[in-house]
Each structure stands twice: as structure tokens, then as C-alpha cells.
Design a protein that fits this description.
By secondary structure, this protein is of the alpha+beta class. Helix content is 39%, strand content 13%. It is globular and about 60 Å long.
Length: 475
């Protein structure tokens, strides 16, 4: 039962998409990262290859042996980075500034263009020690890798902007961890992301007063991660630093909305975990809500509830503020504050848009849709409904809702749902009990069938939902 999970198979019609290497990071590499060597693992057993993601960057046709050579032994990809690059950054961790972090158990391995022309990164987790490892062993547990597969698959199915878990290879080491039964199995994971530039990357350049390097990093981000122009009345809207902050604020407002509509708690929303593309990544103690509870936390060490479910928008807005502080090296305060002030309204617009999409109703405008959101939240709190069950049960206005919720839903037209998923007796969810059961099958029986089945079920749910509509002003 130890065959690698493979969705879709290597002969998928998209397997022949072109591989277009573009190691653009090399223009910044001298001061942005440190060349490193990967760990020499005692074993490389392929456990997961995401051929759907690989097809988007021209690599689904690799044989398992080629895959393992590149993503277990890290032989360089053709015309790409000649050596892995451990990236340098600082960050606020639970709002305490830490200048002693960076890629401590991962590195940037390769860059390429996807079918839409976006610059994509292949980055690692658990690939060995780096100059930033401090006392860490540079390793990742297999359970951590399995959890990341599940988190990214569920979020993608619910329309969130997330990294893709590209590869998981078991590496044959025993690891000791305080938060897992030990010894536990080891793995190296590769993620496919649209950038690994963090808010903490800019914070480091501010701390070191490297204004010239920050100017180049701003230009890199605007070139490779372009967004719509700021509003016509935005002050200093042509200045690169101001444009970048507007882009990041828009993306983070949508990311916060996607978490809330998904009922997802990331757990560790530190600035070093914030990608300037607004793509969610680096999943540790994440959880899905068992019921609609704003105070619910995912991390056992989040004693103050800083990153509780209901405080995630606040956290992402605060993180945008730290980027604004860094960007003062290249812009005046007032236009940066004007960009930050857009977060709240953008967040509300995105919640309304995403909520209607998940509920399967035609939007009526932000004001009316916000009232619908409030009615749904009140109904979930009163009934203590699990959010996945609530959205599924009331999809398109079905579900015999009464009271304020019934009145709100009666004004909405359902979208046309033709996928058979909507006729299932129960929705897909990903509560901690199921996550633990999937891992237990692997840990005790080396049985990967429950994981394979869950991924297939989540992808079926994603197909039923279809793509989430883009924010206003975005393609």
C-alpha cells in the first residue's frame, strides 16, 4: 500500500504542457539568499506526486525515477537554479520582531512559468539545514507533510488562493518532536507557489537599511507579480512602493475573506508567513471549524488567541501595516496609509462575493449580500452548525430555513447546480478527527488509501464549486 498518490496520472492530457524555466530570482540572489546543499537522505520513497499541479508547469510527464531525482535528491532542473537558495528574511512572530529567522529547513529550488505566464516557484520544506537553521534539524515529519497535502487540497477546493503541495518523499529518518509521538517518520516536501517573497523579506531590508536592494525587490515584485493599478484617486499612485502596497492590501483582504468563508484557521499568521502575492502557504497547526466560533484557535501555543478564527482579518491587516512601515524607505507615509485604509472595505466586498459563491446564490450587491452573511452567521451560532454542513445544506436556498435566515435567502436566486456532488447525502469536510484517522492509517498500516480517497473526494467537491469569481477589477 505504499504506491505514490497520483492525481491525475502521468498520461493526463495536460502532461505535455511546456516546461519554461525562468530563474528570475538570480538577479537578486547575491543579497536575497544563501546557496545551500540539500540533505543526503538515507531513503527516498515517493509518497505523493501532484500531477495536476505538475501539468501546469510542464512536469507531469516525469517518470517516478526522474521525479525522485529532482525532488528527493534535488538534482537541478534544466536551465534553472544551479544550486538551491535559502532565502533571507526577518519577521514578526506573534507580533514580536525576530531578526534571526530565514529559510531554516527549506530553500527555493527552481522557477518556471505556468500556462498563464505567471512566475512560479518550487520551494521545499524539510530539505536539510541551512545558515538559518539555528538549533533546528532542518527536517519535516511525514505527518506534517500529509497535513499540508490535506490543507492545500481542501483550500483549493473551496476557492482559496493557496500554494500547491507538489511532492512528498519519505526520507527514512527517525525524528523527535515535542508535539508528535516520537520517534516519527520523516519527509521532504516540495510546494508550488506564486512567489516566496514575504512581508518579512522587506522587513529585513528595512532593518539593514538596504534601500537600494529594496528598490530592486519592489521592481521585481511589480514585474513578476503584477496587479491592477491603484484607484484613480489614490495619492502617489504611480510610485512603485505605493503601487506594491495597494496590490498586497487587495490580495490580503481577499485572502482573509477566503479563510473566513472556508471556515479555516491558519494558526500562525506571522509576517514571515505572508506571501506578497496573497497566496496562503506554510501550513502548521491549521484547523477547520467544528462550529462557527470566532474565538476558535488552531495553535495550542496561541494562548492569547491572537490568530483566532475571527481575528484573522485583523492579523492580515496588521501584517500589511508592517509592509507599509518597511516601504517608507521609498514612499511618504500618507499614500501608504491611504492604501492600508482600503483593507476593510475590500475585505467586506470579498467576503460577500465569496459567501454567495459558496452558498450557490446570485449576488445582489455588497450591502444586501453583507446582510445575508450576517443572517447566516447568526443562524450558525444559534444552531452550532458545522460550517461545511451549513453551506451544503442551504446551497441555493434549500434547507427549509426560517426566521431571519429564511427571509434573507428568499430574496436570492440559486445558481444552476448540475454536478452530482450536490446530491450527496453529506458534504466534504476536514475536521481534526478525520485528519488524525487518515494519518493513523499511514502511521500504523502504511495504508495510503484513505488519503488517496480523501484527495479524490476534495477534488470532486472543487469541481462542483467551480472557480471562485475574481474580485472586482481583476481578470
Amino acid at each position: 500500500m505504499n504506491e505514490p498518490v497520483q492525481h491525475p496520472p502521468a498520461n493526463h492530457p495536460e502532461a505535455g504542457a511546456p516546461y519554461r524555466p525562468d530563474p528570475a530570482i538570480l538577479t537578486l540572489a547575491q543579497w536575497l539568499g544563501d546557496p545551500v546543499a540539500p540533505a543526503d537522505f538515507p531513503a527516498t520513497d515517493l509518497r505523493w506526486r501532484n500531477d495536476r499541479a505538475a501539468a501546469s508547469v510542464g512536469m507531469a510527464g516525469l517518470t517516478d525515477a526522474e521525479w525522485t531525482a529532482h525532488f528527493g535528491r534535488f538534482h537541478p532542473l534544466p536551465d534553472n537554479l544551479p544550486q538551491p537558495l535559502a532565502l533571507r528574511y526577518h519577521g514578526h512572530q506573534f507580533r514580536v520582531y525576530n531578526p534571526e529567522i530565514g529559510d531554516g529547513r527549506g530553500f527555493l529550488f527552481a522557477q518556471m512559468r505556468d500556462a498563464q505566464g505567471r512566475l512560479m516557484d518550487l520551494g521545499t520544506k524539510g530539505s536539510g539545514t541551512t545558515p538559518h537553521s539555528r538549533s533546528g534539524d532542518g527536517r519535516l515529519t511525514l505527518k506534517g507533510a500529509v497535513r499540508e497535502i490535506l490543507a492545500t487540497e481542501m483550500l483549493e477546493a473551496l476557492g482559496a488562493n493557496t500554494s500547491k503541495t507538489f511532492s512528498v518523499i519519505e526520507t527514512g529518518e527517525n525524528l523527535w518532536r515535542g508535539d508528535e509521538p516520537s520517534p516519527t517518520r520523516s519527509a521532504v516536501m516540495v510546494r508550488l507557489s506564486h512567489s516566496h517573497i514575504r512581508i518579512g523579506t522587506f522587513q529585513r531590508l528595512l532593518a539593514l537599511e538596504q534601500a537600494d536592494e529594496m528598490e530592486r525587490l519592489i521592481a521585481y515584485c511589480l514585474t513578476h507579480f503584477p496587479g491592477p493599478p491603484p484607484p484613480a484617486d489614490a495619492p502617489a499612485r504611480e510610485e512603485p512602493a505605493v503601487r506594491l502596497l495597494h496590490n498586497v492590501v487587495e490580495r490580503m483582504a481577499d485572502l482573509a475573506a477566503s479563510y473566513m468563508v472556508a471556515g479555516f484557521v491558519h494558526g500562525v499568521l506571522n509576517t514571515d508567513n505572508m506571501n506578497v502575492t496573497g497566496e496562503s502557504f506554510d501550513y502548521g497547526p491549521w484547523r477547520w471549524l467544528p462550529e462557527w466560533e470566532p474565538a476558535f484557535t488552531a495553535a495550542y501555543f496561541d494562548h492569547a488567541g491572537l490568530y483566532a478564527f475571527g481575528r484573522q482579518p485583523e492579523a492580515l491587516h496588521w501584517n500589511c501595516g508592517q509592509l507599509a512601515v518597511a516601504l517608507r524607505l521609498h514612499a511618504d507615509t500618507a499614500p501608504l496609509v491611504a492604501a492600508l485604509d482600503r483593507f476593510g472595505p475590500l475585505y467586506m466586498e470579498n467576503v460577500a462575493r465569496r459567501w454567495c459563491w459558496r452558498l450557490g446564490v446570485v449576488p445582489q450587491g455588497v450591502e444586501a449580500d453583507t446582510q445575508l452573511v450576517a443572517a447566516c452567521e447568526a443562524a450558525m451560532r444559534e444552531s452550532r452548525a458545522q460550517p461545511d454542513a451549513f453551506f451544503f445544506g442551504h446551497r441555493g436556498g434549500r434547507g427549509q430555513a426560517d426566521g431571519a435566515l429564511g427571509e434573507a435567502l428568499s430574496a436570492y436566486q440559486p445558481v444552476a447546480d448540475t454536478h452530482p456532488y450536490w446530491d450527496d447525502p453529506d458534504p466534504q469536510s476536514l475536521l481534526i478527527e478525520e485528519v488524525e484517522a487518515i494519518w493513523t492509517a499511514i502511521a500504523e498500516e502504511d495504508d495510503w488509501t484513505p488519503l488517496q480517497s480523501k484527495v479524490a473526494a476534495l477534488r470532486r467537491m472543487g469541481a462542483a464549486h467551480g472557480a471562485a469569481p475574481a474580485p472586482a477589477g481583476h481578470a
